[in-house]
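mind reviewing these tokens:
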Amino acid sequence: MADAVMPGMVAQMRRNAAYLCIFLLGAWAWGSGLLPGLLERWDDIAYLGQQHVELVALSGGAAILFGVPLGIMLTRPRFHRIGDAAVQILNIGATIPTLAVLALAMSLLGLGNTPAVFALFIASLLPIVSNTMAGLRDVPPALLEAARGMGLSPRHTLLQVELPNSMFVIYTGIRTALAINVGTVPLAFLIGGGGLGELIFTGIALNEFGTMLAGAIPTALLAVLIDFIVAQLQFWTIPRGVNPLR
């Protein structure tokens, strides 16, 4: 009886400790003026947060729509020789600092959302392409042989065997890319792209801690929220037999 009660007591103690930490954190945020400062800037946070989400949606969505098909194409037999070379080119591109990519995009496309979306698209592309290729290449050869033995065409083999077995790795690449994207969007403010970076860099320039946090905290929360949403899609859309989380 005691053995059955102990786990429940431990779980309850952990919940109480978590509630206490949340309460103390909230009390500190209110007492330090951080929370009232965020509430005062709520209109700015909502407006710039909407711009932030739009930049993430446009650039991240474009990276997914372009990166996944590109990764699939580079694993096909006719493109197998250039697959590794393409990944190396993307790796070289990933080593270029984001600010340099933004500067190049601004010099080519001017100021505003267009160069920001282009630079964020480039920054998000590598994890999606590389994970798509890795997931497809890691499909067990025995499954591919079985599919060919059943008379499946290459197209049906891709749709019914390869993609279902590689979707977990592809989703992981998408989550990584979106995390990079959300964290990089604040830099878009430097080339007129808007977003929560306006609050962050304004706070730094004016040495206003509250203004800086008014941009930094929503950015961090947005990254966590987007990752949570994609993680739920990863959990529920991948079939049980090929999903290690289920």
The chain has two domains: 1-32, 37-242. The first helix runs from residue 2 to 31.
